[in-house]
Design goal:
By secondary structure, the protein is of the alpha/beta class. The chain has 7 helices and 10 strands. It has helices at residues 14-24, 44-50, 66-79, 96-101, 122-128, 164-189, 212-215, and strands at residues 3-9, 30-37, 54-57, 84-87, 106-110, 133-140, 150-157, 192-195, 198-201, 204-205. Strands 3-2-1-4-5-6-7 form a 7-stranded mixed beta sheet, sandwiched between helices. It binds 5-O-phosphono-beta-D-ribofuranosylamine (GRF).
């Protein structure tokens, strides 16, 4: 059954575009029912409109506090009765109530090799720490910021000449835009699920996230 998907964004929407494309060409058995942004100027809103997808904007200044914002956000999201809620560069911390409402059906992409570098400025922090490897992670969203069970992670070696800009670009192009559509496709197909706080992938429970090998279909 084709999954109904709601995508939350704050920015350019490159990840959103990858999801729109993967729904359009059948790699994801899903349909993006709505795109919701906390910023009226998010570039991703135009990408959604261009694809004929409904857009909604909820500006935090219009709400007294985080709880009332999240209550309004849930009301909007629920209009579209999503099977899957995708955080695609949604730059807000969500309340426990919101997170629990979508438990097991909400995923996020984070530009680091979690559990390393939760939060912001991940590329610079990977450089500052002298990390040999860097990448991105797709994970189920739990109450712990960037701390939910990881589904898939892609990585590469950091080069001596890397800057935060080159890392950001390589993480986006080589990792994020590949692992995110694949993770959503797995979730939509029932290949991935959150069971007792762990990730089930097909017939096994993962003790480590899937890798690019799984994304590229090379199982070892
Ligand atoms: C991505 O790097 C994502 O991992 C991070 O914010 C960025 C969003 O970029 N959380 P875009 O809006 O998908 O272009």
């Amino acid at each position: 059954m084709t999954a109904r998907i709601v995508v939350l964004i704050s920015g350019q929407g490159r990840n959103l575009q990858a999801l729109l494309d993967a729904c359009a060409d059948g790699r994801i058995d899903g349909r993006i029912a709505a795109v919701v942004s906390n910023r009226a100027d998010a570039g991703g809103l135009q990408r959604a409109r261009d694809a004929g997808v409904v857009t909604r904007v909820l500006t935090s200044q219009d709400y007294a506090d985080r709880a009332s914002y999240d209550a309004a956000l849930a009301e909007v999201v629920d209009i579209y009765a999503p099977d899957i809620v995708v955080l695609a560069g949604f730059m807000r911390i969500l309340t426990p109530g919101f997170v629990q409402r979508y438990s097991g059906r909400m995923i996020n992409i984070h530009p680091s090799l979690l559990p390393r570098h939760t939060g912001l400025h991940t590329h610079q922090r990977a450089l500052d720490a002298g990390d040999a490897e860097h990448g991105a992670t797709v994970h189920f969203v739990t109450e712990e910021l960037d701390g939910g069970p990881a589904i898939v992670q892609g990585k590469f070696m950091v080069q001596a000449q890397d800057t935060q800009e080159t890392l950001a670009e390589r993480v986006m192009q080589q990792i994020e835009l590949k692992i995110f559509p694949q993770a959503v496709a797995w979730l939509a197909a029932g290949d991935v699920a959150l069971v007792d706080g762990k990730v089930r992938f097909r017939d096994r429970v993962l003790d480590a996230p899937l890798s690019m090998d799984a994304v590229e279909g090379r199982f070892r």
